[in-house]
Specification:
The chain has helices at 41-52, 425-430, 434-440; strands at residues 4-5, 57-59, 71-74, 83-90, 98-104, 110-117, 122-129, 138-144, 150-156, 167-174, 176-180, 189-195, 204-211, 217-225, 231-240, 243-251, 257-265, 270-272, 305-310, 315-318, 321-322, 328-335, 340-349, 354-358, 366-371, 374-380, 388-399, 409-414, 417-423, 441-443. It has 454 residues and is mainly beta. The strands form six sheets. Strands 21-20-25-26-27-29-28 form a seven-stranded mixed sheet. Strands 1, 2, 3, 4, 5 and 6 form a six-stranded antiparallel sheet that branches. A hairpin with a 5-residue loop joins strand 16 (243-251) and strand 17.
């Protein structure tokens, strides 16, 4: 039986904002009121729940993941009868989330089984999956707690013993979690990452956990990753030659970002972070100076990782003052199972809302000067006494409707901006063609990070 999410719950209040760490309460102009009724057969479920708690509750909705309802209904233990869980807090008590557990009895009526106190004040996500192949689904709840990390708790179901019905199998701290077949054995496991706040030295770990045939939850693989981070952004699942590859975006600070790459090492039968430097305890191979996430930039079904590459000799001038900053290319790269493979270089100008692909043959031979928001490209020779040579081309923008610049060619108009470029005689001698600019130019880039990979 497929899991049924009773999305009708709270449907009339979905326009309310969901803030991280806060549960969704049902309110009316006259303070708090009873939640809206479920329809059909599930109305009796809500009636049974309201009776068991005297109606004095606020429902709690998971903030992320597939299951975004306070009620989840399924035949969790495959006994042929529906089960249900509901997440709520008591209005007159501590704001820790509780779990009400129900099952259908032999008369096909909802029957209250037990209440379980949760581990957090709100819910990050809920995962429902039979992780050990015993035909009984485990429920993983990610709890938001009052620390940097979250806690995931795995619950199991018994078929006969009420004591074993929705019992805790184990728990672990985490920051981000996903369900996937990490070791490519045909069975899904929990993959999660966390910053180790108990260690005085910066440290973090990636883990794989599952439930064994005896119904015991445990971590089956663990590997260190870069702990010099401020938090995690997202987990992406990819595959290479039938093997799972996990990409985890992490924030280094307010601007910088890295991506951890995790794979299953079949020879060692464990989790491996091939780009993590054990000596320095860091992952520098995927560093970039902007919060640009992993993306499938060529729509081939596989993710690319953005890597920052400093533009040698670049300068950045604002209002006539030279800034103590370098400019960077973004080198989109793909993990090939062993190392990063370069795909293409891109320079982003977010303040002017465009990007330009840079042929790899130009890298190291050109440099960039940014004057406020406009870009000017010059010849660069590291071996010459004067490293910076003549101007090769420039790319500028101005308001739509304004007169164009003499000698410049129009590239595109987008919203209120017009884009133009000019290739100099030295640029043409260098080998730069109109096609390079036109084919590599894109407007309306995602506004992520600084103005141009600063």
């Amino acid at each position: 039986m497929k899991t049924k999410i009773v999305a009708a719950v709270l449907a009339s209040v979905m326009s309310l904002s969901l803030l991280s760490g806060c549960s969704l309460s049902i309110k009316s102009p006259e303070k708090l009121m009873a939640p809206p009724k479920l329809t059909g057969d599930y109305q009796t479920l809500q009636d049974s729940f309201q009776k068991s708690v005297n109606g004095n509750v606020d429902f709690v909705t998971p903030l992320n993941g597939e299951h975004k309802s306070a009620f989840i209904v399924d035949d969790f233990n495959s006994d042929g009868k529906e089960d249900a869980i509901v997440f709520y807090t008591k209005k007159d008590g501590a704001k820790m989330v509780n779990v009400g557990v129900f099952q259908k009895n032999n008369d096909d009526e909802w029957e209250y089984v037990k209440n379980v106190q949760g581990a957090g004040n709100s819910i990050d996500c809920v995962i429902v999956e039979d992780m050990n192949g015993d035909n009984v689904k485990e429920i993983t709840v990610g709890w938001n707690i009052f620390t940097l990390n979250r806690q995931l708790t795995v619950y199991g179901f018994g078929k006969d013993n009420v004591k074993d019905y929705f019992r805790e199998l184990g728990s672990s701290q985490y920051n981000l979690v996903t369900l996937t077949d990490v070791d490519s054995n045909g069975k899904k496991e929990l993959f999660f990452v966390y910053i180790d706040t108990n260690n005085p030295a910066p440290s973090a770990f990636a883990c794989v956990a599952d439930v064994d045939s005896e119904g015991r939850f445990g971590i089956i693989a663990k590997t260190p990753v870069d702990g010099n981070i401020s938090g995690y952004s997202a987990i992406y699942t990819d595959s290479i030659d039938g093997s799972t590859v996990l990409l985890v975006d992490a924030y280094k600070n307010e601007h910088d970002m890295i991506t951890e790459v995790l794979v299953w090492d079949k020879s060692a039968d464990g989790l491996c972070a091939p780009l993590f430097d054990i000596g320095t305890q860091t992952t520098t191979a995927t560093w970039r100076p902007t919060r640009r996430p992993v993306a499938d930039i060529d729509a081939d079904g596989h993710f690319e990782i953005p890597v920052g590459v400093r533009i040698v000799g670049s300068t950045y001038v604002v209002n006539g003052e030279l800034q103590d900053e370098s400019l960077y290319y973004t080198l989109w790269s793909q993990f090939n199972g062993h190392k990063l493979k370069s795909e293409k270089y891109v320079i982003y100008n977010h303040s002017e809302n465009y990007s330009l692909d840079i042929p790899s043959s130009w890298v190291g031979k050109i440099t960039v000067t940014r004057l406020d928001s406009q870009l000017y490209f010059y010849r660069w020779n590291e071996l010459a006494s004067e490293h910076m040579g003549s101007q090769l081309f420039s790319l500028v923008s101005h308001a739509v409707g304004a007169a164009g610049i003499d000698g410049y060619k129009r590239l595109a108009d987008y919203e209120d901006k017009a884009y133009e470029y000019c290739i100099t005689a030295d640029g043409k001698e260098f080998g730069i063609k109109d096609k390079n600019i036109k084919d590599g130019f894109y407007v309306a880039v995602n506004n992520i990070g600084g103005s141009i990979d600063e």
